[in-house]
Design goal:
2 copies of one chain form a homodimer.
Chain A lengths: L1 H6 L5 H4 L2 H5 L24 H27 L5 E8 L5 H7 L9 E5 L5 H4 L5 H4 L8 E5 L8 H4 L5 H20 L2 E9 L2 H13 L10 H7 L1 H15 L6 E5 L3 H19 L10 H10 L2
Parallel strand pairs in A: 1-3, 1-4, 2-3, 4-5
Helix pairs in contact in A: 4-13
Chain lengths: 295, 295
Amino acid sequence: MAEKGAKRKSGKKSEAVPLADLLRIPAGRPVDLSSYDAAATPGGPADKSAGLKDTARMGEHLADLQERLWAASTAGDGRRLLLVLQGMDTSGKGGTVKHVIGLFNPSGCRISAFKAPTPEERKHDFLWRIRRALPHPGEIGIFDRSHYEDVLIARVRELAPHREINDRYTQINRFEKSLTDDGVTVVKCFLHISYDQQKRRLLERLDNPDKHWKFNPGDIAERALWPTYQEAYEIALARCSTPEAPWYLIPADRKWYRNWAISRLLLEHLTALDPRYPKADFDAEACREQLLGSD
Amino acid sequence: MAEKGAKRKSGKKSEAVPLADLLRIPAGRPVDLSSYDAAATPGGPADKSAGLKDTARMGEHLADLQERLWAASTAGDGRRLLLVLQGMDTSGKGGTVKHVIGLFNPSGCRISAFKAPTPEERKHDFLWRIRRALPHPGEIGIFDRSHYEDVLIARVRELAPHREINDRYTQINRFEKSLTDDGVTVVKCFLHISYDQQKRRLLERLDNPDKHWKFNPGDIAERALWPTYQEAYEIALARCSTPEAPWYLIPADRKWYRNWAISRLLLEHLTALDPRYPKADFDAEACREQLLGSD
């Protein structure tokens, strides 16, 4: 065993143990968020500078895999990936889209930000608007908030009867199972920040007039419900981290680690999909000659 | 005058004459595409290396202006920008999305690639699917092909009666006028490549199995219609380059120049919009105290 370990290149820890295994929330067990350090950097590079460098390095690899996934879809491969981002206000959902999804070719990304449902959306069941926003074959879908809001804010704010909310966990698991059966790789990331970190980030927004537009006085009222939200998250993470569509807990107090970890998770999942450029369904040599025969 | 000129920093030529003025197709005059060199670099940096550098440098500025535009929309500013990309096969529409739109925050971009209309789209007038894909306030919309296909391939392939196609130019001008009246800055770019350059790019796709998926044997048949397409473009550019929504001719044989020029055009238009972060509609100091008063 010592020999085997010695053969590994030093500094390549993260390739030995998949990050997914470090961050995955085990299925069927209670979750205690207070036991997770939001400033931790599990499996991550040594420091911010190394993290930024490694994330940039991953960018090219991610864009290449995305192109292969897209190319494969043109030949009938129905696979796609869906990244679900959840987290308290200021946890960095928007920053993740900017910095991580910004590494991809924008033409293959389908991004949806879910806010309070519109009157039309309210007329349908809570998964209706979600289904309409799913990635098409070959695409990377990104949900900034998602159907989980219907068991988070809906639970905390009692926006639906308790029994109805309780049923939703089962509906969500069934829905996500149907997605994975249909070729969707579902990567659900909970951006875990600390109560203190949220305060710092809210104050930052207040202290900078250019960031006032990101602030909503209602954020303070939501913050007062922090323990209730944490509890709602614990229940959702415990009940909906399934073998098909597990939740990943991303310590998110450090933005560089958050971006690195989500990039890395996407890289691991896309690498596992191993999408291939499709073989030509035409005679390339004949086309070549035809082209060369023209002017 | 000489003194005024002397005060300008040297090497800032491109800031002296807006690129838009160099590339704009004059309204109401015939267009002769053969008089435009597709390998030219009007107003551009000296060479590829300087071009790549300057495009990267613009990225930060573009993303900043985009954030301001988005922020302004949260306070009711209805303005947005629509980039329309047209050009022959291999002219670089997809590459522009990847490299230029890739400079922006993907969450504020609404990208649509228009292909042959679906059966549902055929049931409606040709602008129906276009209207549904328009950018919302604060967004950057990108059309990879557009309503112009309905006066380009539709004209070349006689997909509609001549009279109907003839009417479409007027409909397009009226439609685009309604967009600009509604706060949409319309930036229409024709990616101009040479017949020879297209041949080289098609051969590149054939020579590299990883690029076969981008090739369609039908591309050769389209290429045989090159002169008819050029003529259809000349008519569309001449009839639809209006003061409100002019066409820009982007020499596109050099990819680095194409990316630089479109980035620069977007920068000029966004700078002219001068979007501002909105003023807070709440009492920031009171919020600050409330936050500091909590734990």
